[in-house]
Amino acid sequence: MKKNSLGMSLLVILLATSTAFAQQKRALTHDDYDGWERLGSEKITKNGQWIGFQVSPQDGDGRLELFPTKSPDKRRVIQRGESFSFTADDAFAVGRIVPQKDSVYVLKLKKAKKDEMPLDSLFIYELATDEIEKLARVKSFATPEEEGSWIAVLFEKEKEKKKDKSEADSTATEQKTEKPKKTDGTKLLVRSLDGAISHEFERVKTYGFSPSGSHLYYVLAEEDTLDNAAIYLLSLSNGESKLISEGMTSYEGMTFSPAGEYLAYLTTDDSTKSKKPYHELFLVETETASAAIVADKNSSGILKNGRVSADGNLKFSEDGQRLFFGVAPDYVDYAYESDTTILDEDRVSLDIWGWQDDEIQPMQLKGKSRDEKFTYLAALDLASDQITQLADLEVKNVILESEVDRDFALAWTDDPYRINYSWNIQIGRDLYLIDFATGERTLIEKDATGYPSVSPEGKYVYWYDSRDSSWVAFEVASKAKINLTKALPVEFYDELHDSPSMPGSYGNAGWIEEDEAFLVYDRFDIWKIDPQNPSQAINLTQGKGRESNTVYRRQVLDRDEEGIDPEGKLLVTAFNEKTKDSGFAEASIDGGFAPKSILMTANRYYGLTKAEESDEIFFNKSTYIENPDLYLSDLSFKKITKVSDLNPQQADVNWGTVELVDYLSLNGDSLQGLLFKPENYDATKKYPMMVYFYERSSDGMHNYRSPAPSASTINIPYFVSNEYLVFVPDIKYELGLPGPSALNCIVPGVQAVVAKGIVDEANMAIQGQSWGGYQVAYLITQTNMFKAAGAGAPVVNMTSAYGGIRWGTGMSRMFQYEQTQSRIGGTLWDKPLYYLENSPLFFMDRVETPVLIMHNDEDGAVPWYQGIEMFMALKRLQKPAWLLQYNGEDHNLRQRKNRKDLSVRLSQFFDHYLKGAPAPLWMSEGLPAIQKGKTLKYELED
To answer: Coil, helix or strand for 536?
Structure first.
């Protein structure tokens, strides 16, 4: 008994000490955001011996860290280093050094001229010697992708030196007769990375290496008004530079073949102001630097009345024997457009919306630039000089793979179904195979759903058929369609899908080498399917995923693989849907054993990357408390080393914890939510609580959430650090009832947390953005349990929003209500009552909750007038409401200055209502237009 009492006493002392220590930590402030760091650009050398990453604060100067994987403590830190890469030979790291942001800011305050601003530098760091070289005033740089130890550096223009008076007087006559020559070109330095070999060229505009680093092209810019632009080819083996062509207006699209034996480019001698420049396609043999025209507007085989276009990309097949290029219809001369007797002020400007148009006018206008530059793919056979037009006006889209190593490609068109796209975003498309040699098209399927791909060996075309909820394959040789998953005992569609549309799939893991089998996912497990005998598919994870609520997915280790090695190791990621634990396991490629856990912890793991030529790996690991730092290991995972340590200042901050809350919706569905508590949480106290929601968020339990200024929603770490509870419930939707579904899931979740006895239930608030903003607007018409609410970009009137436009894409909003997030599942005329009953606007007279609305005047997703409708209803009803409208801003705030402003106003608004803090003047007095730009009115009332 005494021992137990003593143990309890010690425990109480320890807990009290821990609580006191936590209470000594400071709360996050809005000033903390800028310095909070994040990782980026993590890279490893091919041999796995060096690693590097960039550390960037949210605002300020970052750094680059480079170090050997075996000795992480021996690191080189390059201040303000970014945009880095390891060279193809694993011997160097190269990258930019950008100017100090404080210096740039001061110069901007002084309204310094452009040529007075500091410019980027280049660093060349030799890994073996720890020696670093820096070059100033760098415009761009490049190294070969695959082989070679070379670098090309294009410099900025040299600053003109200021002359003293005596020098100016002595050269006055010279200046009158000799002006500096005008050109876009600058100096190009091409050198071996060790500096032993160097070449310099003046007046260079563009340049590029062949993948193997054997050659480099460079283009000279025009000088003054002379027609002296030119393209040269430099052989890096002997340093000889050969002129390929000169005197043309432009040289564009330069592209080397994969092995570097050819260079292709486009050129024209038409004026740069010409509305219809005609281009010629040239092919250069790099060994001899001899060039020949291989296609122009008169070439046989290209699109009728077509022309070679610079808007298309040039691309070689992997064997270098085919060259693909773009062809565009010739320009049409319209009499009205070319009539020079009409003043611009007298020209008619209008949009005509026609019911017969495939796309409505806003979509056409959004895509106008894209459509004007659209090109139709053609192929040139280098052996026969034959050109084959692959895409045409009937079938416009031909899909070239990243590495073209077969004689055909996929082609598709959705033109026959495009007119329905404004309300049906799951329209079908007609699928074809197209032969590169003949241009002949073979129909795979009409009105297919899904996005097809070709198996690595080209034996099958495969896709997920959402109408049939199955994976299907088309066998190229037999032209037979095969249903791969229909006969299997599990579903391959998204089991949690809850919108009135066809559910998607869980994806696939790729093909076994030689196209022997296809690996595909159900909700939890991995299946291996022989397309010749799909009913005999093997569950590689033996159903253990579904049995344990663990999602298994194949971890790709070779980004360039063409097929999965049947003898190789099958590393899989593991995620438990119930506990949110994750990690890695080993599975069998033939299903011979159940997954063997390698690592499974209460963390989030992501970003695993393997070195090309060794078993060295790195990955990120996080929790809500632990920053997603970088860790090193090998494929055994036996030794894991943490190699980054971001945000040490967090140790001095009252941070927080997160836990799962299990509860039942009002319909009896099992749901989960995330409850965030402050680090100095005191079980004897009751806390004000913020409730934030969107759809389902609980799987992100172990995501690290950085303190950051708000683009639209509350920053959870900030509110938790300032002694709020934050609850994030999951929501399951019933079709046609989005508002009631939110109510049925959010309210019981909140009640489950309140039942814990830790919430000051008189001081709870809700906040959401976009779809979350809609749900906030709906909830406050149904319940008064929340003391304050924040609604960002809310739809409050589905009847008016239904006929609106998503200006960001130009699409009609109809699809959103009929098929996706709004979940009504029918037209306004089919289900008028559903649109009315789910629209908060018609029930605003019930609202007793003060509301802070944010809706911006360039919102491209939710019509701005929706926020206005909500505000005006509340104002008319004399309900406390404020509308924040950031000028020129989109759906979510893009500019950091506005994000910081919103963060201040969100915290002031909720602190006032939930903590009794004085109201800021912008709430109590407003901000009259006459004071706009003169004051922010953050000051609190006395």
So the answer is: helix
Pairing of strands 322-329, 92-97: unpaired
Place of tokens 């009158």: 176
In angstroms, the CA 124 to CA 139 distance is 15
Distance CA 124, CA 192 (A): 11
Q: Which residue reads 């038409």 in tokens?
A: 270
Q: How far is CA 506 from CA 424, 551, 583, in A?
A: 22, 10, 19
Tell me the C-alpha distance between 629 and 620, whole Å. Answer: 6
- E strand spans, 48-195: 50-57, 63-68, 76-79, 81-86, 92-97, 121-126, 131-135, 138-142, 150-155, 186-192
Bridge partners, residue 100, by sequence: none
What local confidence, expressed as pLDDT, does residue 11 receive? 40
Report whether 583 contacts 567 (CB < 8 A).
Answer: no
- Average pLDDT (216-231) is 90
318/337 Cα distance (integer angstroms): 44
What is the number of alpha carbons within 13 Å of residue 359 lying toward its C-beta? 15
Residues in contact with 592: Cβ distance below 8 Å, sequence separation at least 6, in sequence order: none
pLDDT tens track for 442-463: 999 999 998 999 999 999 999 9
| Helices 738-754 + 771-782 axis angle, to 10 | 70
pTM for this predicted structure: 0.92
Taking the CA atoms of residue 100, residue 101, residue 107 and residue 111 in that order, the dihedral angle to the nearest 10 degrees is 150
Cα→Cα distances 800→642, 646, 658, 792, 835, Å: 54, 48, 40, 18, 10
CB 822 within 8 A of CB 861: no
Per-residue buried b or exposed e for 483-501, using 16+ beta carbons within 10 Å of the residue's own CB? bbbeebeeebbbeeebbbb
Distance CA 677, CA 663 (A): 18
CA 380 → CA 263, 327, 390, 909, distances in Å? 14, 12, 10, 65
Cα-to-chain-centroid distance, residue 315: 25
Q: Confidence band (pLDDT; 50, 70, 90) for 182? A: confident
Tokens of 659: 């836990």
